[in-house]
Amino acid sequence: MNKFLFAIALLICTSYLGYSQRFWVENFESGSSTGMLVTAYVGPNGAWTQSIGTEGDQPNVWYVSCAENGHTTGVCGTGCAAVSTTATGATLHIGGNPGGITGTGDLGASYDAGGFCGLVYCTNTDRKAISPVINCTGKYTITMSFYYIEAGETTNDDASVYYSADAGLTWSLLVNPAKTLPICPLQGYWTHYSYPLPSSADNNPNVKIAFRWVNNDDGIGTDPSVAIDSISLSASTTTTAASFTTNLSTTCQDSCIIFTNTSSGAIDSLTWSMPGVTIAHPHGNIDTICFSTPGTHDMTLTVYHGGTAYTSIHTVTIIPTPSPAITVSGHTLSVSGAYTTYQWYNGTTPIAGATTNSYTFPGTGTYTVIVDSAGCPGFSTPYVFNPLAIEGVNKTNDYRVTFTSTNSLKLFATDILDENLNIGIYDAAGRELFTDVWNKGTEFKSINNLVLPEGIYLVRLSNLQTSVVLRFAK
C-alpha cells in the first residue's frame, strides 16, 4: 500500500473514532530516488516553495526524495526502501549543496557542517521549506503531527517549525522539536511528533507551515541533519477533547518534566496516570514529575464529560545518567565508554585542556571527571592522590629500605608479595624523582645506579587502594 492510500485509510478510520479528523496530509511522494529540490516538488496539496535568508555560497539544500527514506516510530534511518509497515517512502530533508567545490548533493539527511568559510567555501544556511496554503475552514482545535529524525548541533545547526496565519505574509516560530535519540549507528532514530496549532488556525483558510534549517558553518555537527515525513493536520470533531503538552519530551535521569492540560470543550473532571509513577496532583491542570529511573514512560490524561472518557497519551524518554569509573595506571587516569565530552577537575577547579578520556596528573590532588552522554552529564567518584599519605599495603607485610654506598636502593618485605606494587621515590619537598614496579611473587627489590644528592628521601609503595611511605637518607 503506498503512502497516499495508507493516509486515506487512516482518514476513514479516525473519522469513525469521533475524537479527531485528519483533514490534510503531506507524504512527499515525489517519485525521486535522489536530487529533487523542494522547489520542484508538487504534491497532492499543491507546490512547495522556499524562502532564503542570509547564506554562504554553498548552503545546505532542501530535497524531496527517498535518498532519506521515511519510517514510522522506532526505526533507524535508511536510503530508498520498499514501502512497508515501517518504511513510508520519500521525505523532505536537508542534504549537501549539489554544486561548487563539495558537490555532495542529495545523500539523504547528510549535510556539510562547513568550517572552511573565508578559506574555501561557506555553508551558512537559513532557509524554510514552505507548504502550500492549507484551508482550515470549519476545523477547530487543530493538531499537526509528523515523523522526523534530527541531529545537527544544538541550535547552531538546527531544524524548527514555523507557522503563518496569513498565507505566508508573516511567520512565527511554532516549535523547535528536540533532537531525536542518537541510538542508531549510522543514521537517525525515527520519532513521532505532534503539536497543537495556535487558535488563529481555527476556521482559517490561509494557514501555512514551514520547516526552517539553519547552519552556522562552524564545522561542528552530526548527521542526520533533518528529515520530515507523513505530516498531517487533525481537528477535533467532539465538543470535548483531551490534550496536554510537555516542556520536554526527552530529558536526563533525575530531571523533571512539566505536564500541562490543554484539553478543550466541556470537562467535568480529569485524571493523570503513569504506570509505576506516583503523581502528586492527579486531578490538577498541571503537574511536575521527576524521574529517577531511565527508560520510556507513557503519561495518560483522561478527561470526563457526561459519563464519557477522552484520553491523550504522550511518551517521554529518560536518558540514563552516565557513571564513569576512573582506572589508574601510574599517574594516568582514564575512563572507558563512549561519551560526548569530558572535563577533568582537581577539586572543584576544571583543568584547562583536560577534555579527553584520559588525564596524566602531576601530583597531589583530588581528581574527578565529568562526562556527557546524549546531553546528560555524569560524575565519577573522586580519585585522591597524596604521595605522603601513610597507609597499609599488603598488610601482612612489614617493609624496610636501605640505600648503599654504591647508589643501590634495596627494598625488603617480610613475606612474598601477592600483588604488584608501584614504587615512587620523592625528595623531601614531595617532588617525584623515580618510578618503578615491584613485581608480585618476590620479597626483595633492588634499584641500582640511583644517583642522588645528599638528603632525606621518601619511598612510596602503593596499589590502587592504599600506600605506605618509607624514609631513607643519603
What would you note in describing this structure?
The protein is mostly beta strands and 474 residues long. It contains 1 helix and 35 strands. Strands 1, 5, 6, 8, 11 and 13 form a 6-stranded antiparallel beta sheet that branches. The chain has a 5-stranded antiparallel beta sheet with strand order 4-7-12-9-10, with no helix packed on it. The longest helix is centred in the N-terminal third of the chain and has 15 residues. It is elongated. The N terminus is likely disordered.
- Which spans of ≥5 residues are poorly predicted at pLDDT below 50? 1-19
Helix content range of the residues, please? under 10%
Alpha-carbon distance between the two ends: 89 Å
What would you report as the Rg, rounded to the nearest angstrom? 31 Å
C-alpha geometry: elongated
- Give a quick account of the main beta sheet: strands, pairing sense, barrel closure: 6 strands, antiparallel
Determine the strand fraction and express it as a percent band: over 45%
SS-based class: mainly beta
In CATH, the topology of the largest domain is named: Jelly Rolls
Average per-residue pLDDT, rounded, comes to 88
Count of β-strands:
35
Task: Provide the domain count.
Answer: 4
